Amino acid sequence: MAKVADIGSKRLINLAPDAWVQWVTQRPEVVAKEILGSEFQWISRETDVLVKAYSATHGDFLVLNELQLRYTAHMPLRMRAYAALAQERYRLPTYPVLINILPPPPTLTIVNSYEQEFLGLRAIQDYRVINLWEIDAEIVFQQPLPSLLPFVPILRGGGEVSVVQRALQTLRADEQLNQLESLLAFFASFVLDTPLVQQIMRWDMAVLRESPWYQEIEQRGIQQGIQQGVQQGARQQLIRVLRRRFGEISQEVEARLESESVEKLENLMDSAIAVSSLDEFVVILSR
Fold first, then answer.
1. Given Cys at both, which of 96, 181, 209, 218 links 127, Cβ 3.0 to 4.6 Å?
2. Where are the beta strands (DSSP E) in the chain?
3. How do 59-70 and 48-55 pair as beta strands?
4. Is there a contact between 156 and 162 (Cβ–Cβ < 8 Å)?
C-alpha cells in the first residue's frame, strides 16, 4: 500500500512560507512567523490556511489563505466570516487571500469583496483574489515558488509537455517535494491526455486521494471521468508491456482487461513483468 502523504494546502504553503506570504501580499519584506492551526471547524476546511506574518512596517498580522478548486457564489461570504473569526481569535489585522485554482463557469463573475446593506447598516470585507490560470508558470521557477509546483500545468503557459516535465524534474530533485508528483499528475490531467500524463510521471491514487481538491472533485461527481482516464491509461500500459514481451495478444485478453479496476491492473502489471509466458499471465488473469 502506498504511503499516505500530506498534500493539502497547509503542507504546500509550509514548503516555503516566506516566499508564499511575499507572493500573496506582493510585499518582499514580509516573513512568515507561524502557520496557525484552524479553530473554526464549523467553517474551516483543509483548503484554509492561516499564517502569522510580520513586516517592519506593519508588525504582526495574519495572512488568511483560501485555496479554492473553483470559485462559487458563496466565497465572498465565506471570506468575510473567516477573516472576522481569525481577527477576533488572534486580535491581529487580517489580510485575506482567495486563490482560485480552476476557472469558474462563464456565467459566474469573480468578485474581490463582500458587501451587504441591511436596515441601514453595511458590512464590507475586501480580499485579494489570485486566479492561478492568470499566473505565468515561469514565475514558479524564477522566484522560486515550490508551493505552486503541483499547479504548474494549469498556470498560464504551463500546459506544455516540456513545462510539465520541468516541474516534474524539480519535484524529483528534492526529497521534500517528490511526494507531490501525484498532485502534479492530477492537475496535468486537466490539460494533457491521461495516458500521456501516466507515461511521464507517477499517478498514485492512494496518495492523490489525500488531496482536498481530489476529494472536492469526487464530491461533485467529476471524479468518475478522471477515474476512467486513469483506468484506460493503466490498461494501455499493461497491454504495451505484454506486447513487448510476448508479441501480439488476443482480443479476448484485451477484452478481459477492459473491466478490471485500476488496482487490479497495477497488480497485473507486476505479473506481466514477472511471468515467463503469456499463458502464465492468462492463468493469473483468470484468478
1. 96
2. 31-36, 48-55, 59-70, 94-102, 113-118, 121-126, 128-131
3. antiparallel
4. no
